[in-house]
Amino acid sequence: MTTTVLLTGFEPFNNATVNPAWEAVRHLDGWREAGFVVHGRQLPCVFGEANRVLCEIIDELRPSIVIAVGQAGGRADLSVERVAINVDDAPIMDNSMQQLVDTPVVAGGPAAYFSTLPIKAIVKAMREAGLPASVSQTAGTFVCNHVFYGLMHHTEGKAMRAGFIHIPYLPLQAAAFPGAPSMALDDVMEGLRVAVRVAVQGGADIVDAGGRTH
Fold first, then answer.
1. Cα-Cα end-to-end distance for the chain
2. DSSP code of 127?
3. Banded model confidence at residue 209, pLDDT cuts 50, 70, 90
4. In this structure, what are the phi and psi dihedrals at residue 171, rounded to the nearest 5 degrees?
5. Which residues are catalytic, by number?
6. How far apart are CA 43 and CA 41, in angstroms?
7. Which backbone phi and psi does 188 adopt, to 5 degrees?
8. Could you report the per-residue pLDDT of 25-62, keeping only the tens digit for each?
9. Which of 197, 213, 167 is nearest to 38 (CA)?
């Protein structure tokens, strides 16, 4: 039986012409190894609409594993997110010119959801592959967290492992922000490959207190 893996990445936002999350995910669409196949899909960077599209894709593909990916400009490593919180509090407008403030992602929903991916095992495997990585304790309050929360809410009680990974700018983006960290697209893609392989293995997460976290 082949395991279906869904990777999602956002369209460009905030007047950018590229989003590294989508660049990585689209290149991994159709990637397969023994036992699994990856589907890459783009999400709009729009509150509400992003979760509607995501839920439709999940209901269509019925994946066993879902990893949403988003850009985190200013971060230097692959940040495997631990927790999504039930609040939209946007520092900028989304692509439909909404700027939600102190608004729940899901009215009446739990305050937070934890990732069901083996987050520390993924970080350990990324580091062993020579990639900078850490567990992150905050996915922010923009559309990335909105989708992370929506993903966990939609998959609650289902036989799916799901979570979110933030990635740095690409070098071409960082060139516009002197001193900003970046990561090559090939390294981002390899990090996502590592995350998928670890998640597909299906083992329990590890207990590891080492390494910095956001």
1. 37
2. H
3. confident
4. -55, -40
5. 81, 144, 166
6. 7
7. -60, -45
8. 999 999 999 999 999 999 999 999 999 999 999 999 99
9. 197
Q: pTM for the full model? A: 0.96
The number of CA neighbours under 13 Å toward the Cβ of 22 is 14
38 three-state secondary structure: strand
Could you tell me the CA-to-CA distances from 132 to 80, 93, 193, 201 in Å, in that order?
11, 30, 14, 22
* Three-state helix/strand/coil letters over 159-201: CCEEEEEEECECHHHHCCCCCCCECCHHHHHHHHHHHHHHHHH
Cα–Cα separations (whole angstroms), residue 2 to 5, 36, 55, 149: 10, 5, 21, 27
What CA–CA distance (Å, rounded) separates 23 from 30? 14
Cα-flanking dihedrals φ and ψ of residue 20, to 5°?
-60, -25
d(CA 50, CA 105): 11
Report the b/e string of 166-188 with b at 16+ CB within 10 A.
Answer: bbbbbeebbeeeeebebbebebb
Instruction: Take residue 71 and report the two structure tokens written for it.
Output: 């850009």
